[in-house]
Amino acid sequence: MQNSINEKRKKFWDLHKDGCFILPNPWDVGSAKILEQLGFKALATTSSGYAWSCGKADGRLTREETLEHLRYMVQATNLPINADFENGFSDTNNGVIESVRLAIETGVAGISIEDSTGSREKPLLNIPDAIDRIRAARIAIDQSGTNTMLIGRAENFFVGVPDLEDTIHRLKAYSDAGADCLYAPGIKTREQIAAVVAAISPKPVNVLIGWDSDLTVTELADLGVRRISVGGALARTAWDSFIKAASALAEAGNFDAFNNLVPGDNLNNRFK
Question: Where, if anywhere, are coiled coils annotated (predicted)?
């Protein structure tokens, strides 16, 4: 039986109360269904993974394309969905309120808002402007009367500004502005993660593991991390295999990459 939107949102909040859970990032309905079958308790969209599947670079999707994708993903699985909603798809606070309201209407259980600008010259919003963006998202959620979770993201390490002090300052400000969960993609070391968790406590912290890392789920849990996402890493895994197989066809003329693949019947049975 399909869970209602309210049930999904409640389950999502319950996952954040204690312990540590993995929040993997499917990029389409098929990958979402497989992850649900594997026993994961919640999923998060990935702007990069979906953009690549559309033949676009990350950050090039429109608000309308993203909302359509969110609706599709929410309807495809019985699990709560956290929306990678980039920076809110507007340059104004009122526009962010409208965008978040539309995202809530898709049925997502959580919405992440980041402070990146997309500009190489100035990759991060000024802190007051970033705070206003979180406040605008908070207003939209409160006006909706739903228990949709708001995640505030400090993109410092992700956009080439690896300043831990500024990252923590931003996360604390976003927490004060109404974010329910905090996220600094790109922090990697145990020391960085522990510092962020200590600064944000008791609110939950999301950590991204999307590149080489010797950390385990148990170690991240011991550091106080509440949830772990992988961003576009699963999508990159699929693309890596596809590119290598296609390159072998084009360059070497062999089919070795097709050896030992998951059988088609296996996939058909998974998608019945």
Answer: none
